[in-house]
Design a protein that fits this description.
Elements: E1 5-6, E2 13-14, H1 16-24, E3 34-39, E4 42-47, H2 50-57, H3 92-117, H4 135-156, E5 163-164, E6 171-172, H5 200-211, E7 240-241, H6 251-266, H7 295-316, E8 323-327, H8 331-337, H9 342-353, E9 356-364, E10 383-390, E11 397-399, H10 400-420, H11 428-441, E12 445-447, H12 456-475, H13 480-492, E13 497-498, H14 499-508, H15 513-518, E14 522-524, E15 528-531, H16 551-563, H17 569-579, H18 582-600, H19 603-639
Parallel strand pairs: 7-8, 11-12
Antiparallel strand pairs: 1-2, 3-4, 5-6, 8-10, 9-10, 13-15, 14-15
Helix pairs in contact: 3-4, 3-6, 4-5, 4-6, 7-9, 10-11, 10-12, 11-12, 16-17, 16-18, 17-19, 18-19
Length: about 650
């Protein structure tokens, strides 16, 4: 784990502390393990020799990027291992390549200007930074876009890039697959003159793709200001903000990785932007503990300045147009603390302190499906958009008991609407916050029993608890067999237990255990019992042919058919068409089973139920089509 290893010769443990000490003493080196070449039928992996290694490590760069990495910056892991300078993140050969490309940017710019003098091009002498549109501005633009290409190369041409060995890739992966600079113990070096990832040809091809989507004539205006100190002019306009997410990302510290290379090639083109050695950081609205005296000071800084920024938005907003604010959960934050995490609750508290109420929280598909945490995991599928309005000036004060009663009254319909809107189970917890916080934030205060104001962190816990209670109450609406299966699943999963455990659960629901075997929900294993596994369910089952149809069977058979080689969406849709009123119950059960699987840490099970619930609207459309076809066929048969 992390920096802990074992000696390949003796098996002796090599601790993380020892590796860090060796790194800080500059005694950690690199050895070339293999060379990847392009073969007739794909990649060829070859053994490296001494000449290859000397060539790789013996280069002498003409220039190195200046500057030290902030040792305790958010997401920075490498300084602990002695990689303390930006130049340390590149091999000598990589530094030669990137420095050479950077130096050539000015040569290209001069060549563009020389060509312009020999043509009829407009030669107004006004630089791009001053709003020019002639030959000088054109040369500046070319230099800027070339520098963007070099920046992209730097992301793929450093000594922290790992090899993507999945069959569809087999190339160098970029450093910033997430917003951090993690330590890696094996790295791949791209060929800048090749055709694969990390090459100039590949990196350069991405820049024109962006330019193609530029507006031919832009009407926007960008102003660089200090958000907490800003005062917007109230006007009938919509306000949308994607602010920093507490301590998720240290934007300024991370941006220095690119800044040092841009400064090398663009300091003459954009002198005002690159007059500093590094980017400004002290006023960045991020809860960075090492800059603010620890976690407590960082939280206080974030709350104060985020409150000021949101307050300015609140004053400028109008009732007819809500404010939309984006928030992306840190996945580790969700796993360890859930929706009551410090970052999320602090952010919501700042919104409320600014005089805003939360109308809703909706998931947005803003993350790549192949992002690192998304591969084979049940990671958060989306960012959250908070819809906010000004809180009424005459907002009332209520008690905790009033708050709970209001939640129980309003959340059931809100949850139903969220599910109908197509929000998947993996995003339900974040989406339910919206109507819950809507109740909380439309009041001036919610008083605890000691008359103190309830903080947001507590309100989130109350909302989550009421949601769980509502789900448990909904369980009582399922048929008795499904209730027993649900209770069994929550306690034992698909494991085998003595039959007495099933009899106890069945008696509590006033149902004979034999009916549970007859329905096919459970298997009788001679003194022991277990839920019937999906792979063991009978093929050819249909709701119409089942004389004792249960919601549990509807869900399990649909999940099996949806993913079966001989099934698919159309086949699953036909099952839904025959379920009648139980179809809505089956969808609700899929959400419930996802919640249980997630709580138990059964990732594979959770993925199945999340997929089923998200596909359900499509299955209902297919079911409607199947019913229409059946009706048409019946009508035609009656004609003859």
């Amino acid at each position: 784990a992390r920096g802990n290893f074992a000696c390949v010769l003796t098996g002796a443990p090599i601790s993380e502390d020892w590796n860090r000490a060796e790194g800080k003493a500059r005694r950690l080196g690199s050895r070339l393990m293999a060379v990847v070449a392009e073969g007739d039928r794909g990649r060829v992996y070859l053994s490296a020799d001494e000449m290859h290694e000397k060539t790789a490590l013996g280069a002498v760069p003409p220039w190195e990027p200046d500057g030290e990495l902030a040792e305790k910056a958010l997401g920075f892991r490498v300084p602990a291992y002695g990689l303390t300078r930006w130049a340390d993140l590149f091999t000598p050969r990589q530094l030669v390549g990137l420095a050479t490309y950077s130096a050539l940017v000015e040569d290209v710019r001069n060549q563009v200007l020389m060509h312009a003098k020999n043509t009829a091009s407009q030669q107004d002498g006004v630089a791009l930074r001053d709003g020019g549109s002639g030959s000088v501005a054109y040369a500046d633009a070319i230099a800027t876009y070339l520098s963007f290409t070099i920046n992209r190369m730097a992301d793929l041409l450093n000594n922290l890039c790992q090899w993507r060995n999945d069959p569809a890739k087999q190339h160098v992966g970029h450093l910033f697959s997430r917003h951090a600079i993690p330590m890696t113990w094996d790295y791949a070096e791209a060929n800048p003159f090749g055709n694969s990832a990390g090459s100039w040809k590949k990196c350069e091809s991405f820049v024109p793709k962006c330019i193609e989507f530029y507006s031919a004539r832009g009407f926007g205006r960008v102003t660089n200001i200090n958000a907490p100190a800003n005062n917007f002019d109230p006007s009938p306009t919509a306000i949308s903000s994607d602010p920093p997410y507490y301590d998720n990302i240290g934007y300024a510290d991370l941006s220095d990785f690119f800044y040092v290379w841009l400064r090398k090639s663009l300091s003459k083109v954009w002198p005002d932007l690159f007059r500093r050695i590094s980017t400004p950081k002290e006023e960045e609205l991020v809860a960075t503990p090492f800059r603010h005296g620890g976690p407590t000071g960082a939280e206080a800084f974030f709350m104060e300045h985020m409150g000021k920024a949101l307050g300015a938005m609140q004053r400028a907003s109008i009732q007819e147009a809500p404010i939309t604010i984006y928030y992306a959960f840190k996945q580790s934050e969700l796993e360890s603390e859930g929706i009551t995490s410090a970052g999320w609750s602090s952010f919501l508290q700042a919104i409320l302190n600014a005089g805003l109420s939360v109308d809703g929280t909706w998931p947005m598909r803003t993350e790549l499906a192949n992002r690192m945490r998304g591969l084979g995991s049940n990671a958060l599928a989306s960012s959250i958009v908070l819809v906010c309005r000004k809180r009424a000036a005459d907002a009332s004060v209520i008690t905790r008991a009033d708050f709970v009663r209001a939640l129980k009254r309003e959340l059931p319909d809100a949850i139903d609407d969220i599910r109908k809107a197509g929000v998947g189970p993996v995003d339900m917890q974040q989406s339910v916050i919206g109507p819950g916080m809507g109740v909380f934030s439309r009041h001036a205060k919610v008083l605890e029993d000691d008359d103190s104001a309830m903080p947001v962190k507590t309100a989130l816990s109350v909302i989550n608890r009421v949601w769980e209670e509502i789900d448990q109450e909904l369980d009582a609406n399922f048929d008795a067999e499904t209730q027993v299966a649900l209770a069994w699943y929550a306690s034992y999963g698909d494991s085998e237990r003595v039959s007495g455990d099933l009899i106890t659960l069945a008696n509590a629901k006033n149902i004979p255990s034999n009916s549970l075997f007859a329905s096919g929900v459970f298997e009788d294993r001679k003194g022991k019992t277990a839920l019937t596994k999906r792979v063991d369910l009978p093929k050819g089952w249909t709701p119409a042919s089942d004389k004792s149809l249960t919601v549990w069977e509807c869900v399990q058979h649909t999940a099996r058919v949806l993913n079966a080689e001989d099934g698919g969406g159309a086949a699953a849709g036909r099952l839904v068409a025959e379920m009648g009123p139980k179809a809505a119950e089956a969808r609700a059960l899929a959400y419930r089973l996802f919640e249980i699987a997630t709580q138990q840490g059964w990732a594979a099970e959770a993925l199945i139920y999340n997929e089923l619930a998200q596909e359900w609207p499509k299955l209902e459309d297919l079911a409607s089509s199947a019913r229409s076809q059946a009706t048409t066929a019946t009508a035609q048969a009656e004609l003859f």
